[in-house]
């Protein structure tokens, strides 16, 4: 999953946020902020509040990472942080990838253009579309922000699918949703997302978010694979691991891999014990089986 960063500009040695932005490389973006301001001065172009702030403090500024977020969610997260801090030098409410732009078409006119010129059915498809296609100048790539107070209803309304936001839908409770999904033999998140594109099942597109504090355990529990990501697994301590290996009469790494493959329910045995037990007693496989 691709991620990006929401960052804040501060004076060196300070943590008072004066500008909020988004960048895949905040360190490089800071240099561009400074260079762009210097170039504006050289070319006698208009300066923004941020430019004046940089000049006033002789460009002695730094940045703070406010959040690492899903790339498809950066607009909403940037808007959130801009609303969170006071006395910012930003010139827009965020989510536009730059200074504010006024789009004169009405919300319904933009909806009609999307319906007539694309076959987009989800917010993710829209995000992918604007990355690879040039929109007319009159069409905003960020409709939620541009039309937030000018007619915006939901992505379902905008794209014509009539799907509502998660909290507006009468979704199944977690156990009922899990029961339905378990019967579909969807073994990973990608398969689940592909299935949901053409499904009217009352389950949210992002169940891990919707069911958080409503019964959610893990993707492995939800899909019925019982897979638990390594960062959430609790493995045997090293000494107990050695005892377990001898109890199972495992004599080689090949035997161990076969056991792991056939006994996936034993989540306390790591797939790569040499990594998990590094600096915790691990020497070699020979040391384990002796």
The SSE string, one letter per element, is: EEHHEHHHHHHHHHHHHH
Biggest sheet strand order reads 2-1-3
Q: Helical percent range?
A: 40-55%
Alpha plus pi helix count: 15
Quick check: average pLDDT? Answer: 82
Distance between the termini: 42 Å
Please tell me how large the radius of gyration is.
Answer: 26 Å
Apparent shape: flat
- Give me the CATH superfamily of the largest domain: GIY-YIG endonuclease
CATH second-level architecture of the largest domain = 3-Layer(aba) Sandwich
Spell out the blueprint of helices and strands.
Elements: E1 3-11, E2 19-23, H1 26-42, H2 49-56, E3 61-70, H3 74-84, H4 107-117, H5 123-132, H6 143-146, H7 155-159, H8 174-182, H9 189-197, H10 207-210, H11 219-223, H12 238-247, H13 253-262, H14 273-276, H15 285-289
Antiparallel strand pairs: 1-2, 1-3
Defining traits:
mainly alpha, GIY-YIG endonuclease, 3-stranded antiparallel β-sheet, 3 strands
Give a structural overview.
The protein is mainly alpha-helical and 290 residues long. It folds into four domains: 3-84, 3-Layer(aba) Sandwich (GIY-YIG endonuclease); 107-164, no CATH class; 167-226, no CATH class; 232-289. Helices cover 42% and strands 8% of the residues. The protein contains 15 helices and three strands. The chain has a three-stranded antiparallel beta sheet, sandwiched between helices. A hairpin with a 7-residue loop joins strand 1 and strand 2. It is flat. The two termini are 42 Å apart. The mean pLDDT is 82.
């Amino acid at each position: 999953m691709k991620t990006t960063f929401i960052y804040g500009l501060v004076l060196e040695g300070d943590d008072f946020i004066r500008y909020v932005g988004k960048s895949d490389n905040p360190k490089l973006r800071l240099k561009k902020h400074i260079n762009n301001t210097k170039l504006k001065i050289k070319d006698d172009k208009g300066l923004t509040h941020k430019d004046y702030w940089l000049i006033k403090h002789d460009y002695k500024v730094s940045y703070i990472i406010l959040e690492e977020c899903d790339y498809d969610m950066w607009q909403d997260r940037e808007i959130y942080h801009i609303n969170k801090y006071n006395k910012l030098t930003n010139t827009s409410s965020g989510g536009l990838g730059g200074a504010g732009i006024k789009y004169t078409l009405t919300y319904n006119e933009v909806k009609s253009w999307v319906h007539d010129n694309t076959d987009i059915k989800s917010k993710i498809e829209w995000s992918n579309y604007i990355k690879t296609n040039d929109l007319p100048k009159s069409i905003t790539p960020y409709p939620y922000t541009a039309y937030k107070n000018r007619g915006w209803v939901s992505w379902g309304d905008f794209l014509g699918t009539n799907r509502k936001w998660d909290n507006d839908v009468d979704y199944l409770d977690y156990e009922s949703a899990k029961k339905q999904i378990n019967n579909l033999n969807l073994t990973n998140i990608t398969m689940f997302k592909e299935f949901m594109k053409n499904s009217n099942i009352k389950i949210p597109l992002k169940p891990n978010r919707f069911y958080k504090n409503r019964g959610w355990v893990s993707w492995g529990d939800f899909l019925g694979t019982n897979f638990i990501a390594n960062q959430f697994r609790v493995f045997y301590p090293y000494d107990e691991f050695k005892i377990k290996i001898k109890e199972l009469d495992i004599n080689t790494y090949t035997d161990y891999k076969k056991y792991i493959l056939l006994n996936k329910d034993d989540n306390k045995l790591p797939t790569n014990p040499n990594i998990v037990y590094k600096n915790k007693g691990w020497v070699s496989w020979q040391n384990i089986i002796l």
